[in-house]
Amino acid sequence: MTIGTVAEGPYFDELAVGQAFRSAPGVTLTPGLVDVHRSIVGGRLALALDAALCAEVTGGTTLAPPNVVWDVAIGQSTVVTHHVKANLFYRGLVFRRNPEIGDTLRTSTEVVALRQNSVRPGRRPTGLAVLRITTVDQRARPVLDFWRCAMLPLRDPDRATGHRDDVDEVGIQPAAADLAAVVGGWDLTRFAAAIEGPRFAELTAGQSWRVGGGDVVSSAPELARLTLNIAQVHHDSAAGGGRRLVYGGHTIGLAFAQVTRALPTLVTVAGWHGCDHVGPVYEGDTLRSEVTVEELTPLAAGGGLVSLRSRVRADGEPAREVLDWRFVAVLP
């Protein structure tokens, strides 16, 4: 039998700066998609659950949970990272608008920097690819525009690509004005009147919460499929070195669900300062987190931006650190 061409994504040595990938299908944010996503990672974000409150606060219809939006955008970008071994960083993730249920997300992914790693004995050669991920809605309105750095193997282990870009210089941190604009025009006083819990004015830098109880990681390949994530390591145990790795967005989603338990007055997430996956996560792991306030920035209309750090560990002897996520939430 003749074997045809393998249908797969590119390896590191098949990428070039300036390449753009737009083959991922658009995804319409439906109530069913959101409900399935919530059944896997949880979450108690009031504006995404209470349509009447959302209309009062935002003037629009039901808000799509922010973690659904970034999971879909990242999943759409995996047409480039089918062979990914690890994600090193995310930068500049800020919501340019807040998608609602019924909106459609379309994503293009551009290669903006490449650096081949030094060869390590006994390991397949790899390189770092920095990708610019641009997501718009069905009316071409900007939703997300951020950078992701992925480690990919080379197809030809003996090839020297000559790629030496400084990946540390790529991308920008979110600006305070852009973060504040995420909730521009929203009536946070209505939110504060409806939801009990900590207010922005009651928080202090350094304050922290250890979230009571852990969350088990379940339905990992289902979440990857739901969000169009085709990275092999999340589906194929052989690609994962004998055991499937859990999609990083799954870990972030569980961390976010735990944050919403600690801070029920969290209105939404405006953006990320950064996210490091510091250890592998596997299906069946139980994750626990600690949340710390790092910085507080008041908003002119009331409430403010709260820079939070979520550090997540997986149960075991000893427990494993798996996530260090720094993001900006809005509180009334």
By CATH's scheme, which homologous superfamily applies? Hotdog Thioesterase
What's the architecture, going by CATH? Answer: Roll
Determine the structural class based on helices, strands and strand pairing.
alpha+beta
- Please trace the helix and strand order, writing H or E for each element: EEHHHHEEEEHHEEHHEEEE
* The CATH C-level class name: Alpha Beta
What Rg, in angstroms, do the CA atoms define?
A: 20 Å
According to DSSP, the number of beta strands is: 12
What is the residue-averaged pLDDT? Answer: 94
Number of domains: 1
Given the structure, what is the number of helices? Answer: 8
Shape: globular
What's the story with the biggest beta sheet?
6 strands, antiparallel
Beta content comes to 25-35%
Q: Could you please say which CATH topology applies here? A: Thiol Ester Dehydrase, Chain A
Point out poorly predicted stretches: none
Helix content: 10-25%
Blueprint (SSEs and pairs):
Elements: E1 20-21, E2 27-28, H1 31-41, H2 46-49, H3 51-58, H4 66-77, E3 86-91, E4 104-116, E5 126-136, E6 142-153, H5 176-181, H6 188-194, E7 208-210, E8 215-216, H7 220-226, H8 248-262, E9 268-276, E10 286-298, E11 304-314, E12 320-331
Antiparallel strand pairs: 1-4, 2-4, 3-6, 4-5, 5-6, 7-10, 8-10, 9-12, 10-11, 11-12
